[in-house]
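Re: that chain you flagged

S.,

Sorry for the slow reply, it's been a week of failed gels. I finally had a moment to sit down with the sequence you sent. For the record, here it is as I used it:
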Amino acid sequence: MNTAKPRYQQLKDLIIGQISSGELGPSDRVPSENDLVEAMHVSRMTANRALRELNDEGYVERIAGRGTFVSDFRSQSHLLEVQNIADEIESRGHSHSSVVMRQLKLHARGEVARALHVAQGTDICHLLLVHYENNVPVQVEDRHVLASFAPDCMKQDFEHLTPSAYLTSVAPLQEAEQVVRASMPNRAVRQQLNMEDDEPSLVVLRRTWSKGRPVTFARLHHPGSRYELTGHYAPPGTSRSMPADVVQLENLKK
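Prediction finished late last night. Pasting the structure tokens below so you have them in one place:
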């Protein structure tokens, strides 16, 4: 263990590493305070702080009288949802496919370096993909990933595994930030999405965090005529009062 860090942080890093590697999977029991005290030779206060912070950060769930368990990130529902586009498309009963346009190792510059909070020249993996729904292009994914976070990024076959699925397997998503805006796309994006010359695109700017730092920055382009963002929010503890079906706004009469 790295003695340069406080003992509670060393314990956190150890457990996060076990979750990231798959050694501990969703719903697996995490060592108890007593187990950590005996195995790692730390104080009960140190063990308690490590588990408490892991719980607060969403890595584990502490259940009174039962123990501490790895959170099932796949079933968590967030006000800000970050979905794997393949899962999103397949949930509609449609087929997903993608084409990789670019997969390069580059040095972070300008906007990308600022977004990822790294120095100019830091190694990143740049991915450019076109995603298709039933063979119709619906998204251009322009993503930058910290190479130190996902060192095997350049070895992946992203025509069979989406970047989102791969990155989630590297480490659980901790936080996400999204900005949505309308934009007139450049010629390359317009051609990749088969858009009309006067058609705007819906652009999602997304950053994701893991282990307390931003690790990816993406610009996701969608054709305005073939894509919409939907969502539903209910305060904690209340039941859903509206039907699950999305209202087709184009069918509503003024």
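What I noticed first: The first strand starts at residue 29 and ends at 30.

Talk soon,
D.
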